[in-house]
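pasting for the record
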Amino acid sequence: MTINDGLTVNIRNKTPLHRQPVARVLIAQALVVLIATVICTAVFGMVAGYSALLGGLIAFLANVYFAFKAFRYFGARSARAIVQSFWAGEMGKQILAAALFALVFVGVKPLQPAALFVGYLLVLGAGASALLLMKNNPKH
């Protein structure tokens, strides 16, 4: 427990990430990475397969970072810390994704950019879709 400005008490979330509702979204995204990789490899070849894998991993790893950063606090008394951690998580996610794209474009040859972006976009779409499809009670 920490005290900010003498007024707000921030309570750290002791729930492990794998027990939080966001874990279901991350699992869905990991499955999309695997499925996209297998399909791209089977239909378009090995370069497209690992390009899709890299694109999916960029989105997935950035989202894992966001989940760890954003869901550190909970409770009404932690509202300021929650907003700050979500902002920091989103900024870090964007920076991480940009850095990983740069590393892939510089370090991976041959690369199929279309498959890379398809893998990336499929994982982002899976995250958005999973949030929409989740029941009101995400624990069941």
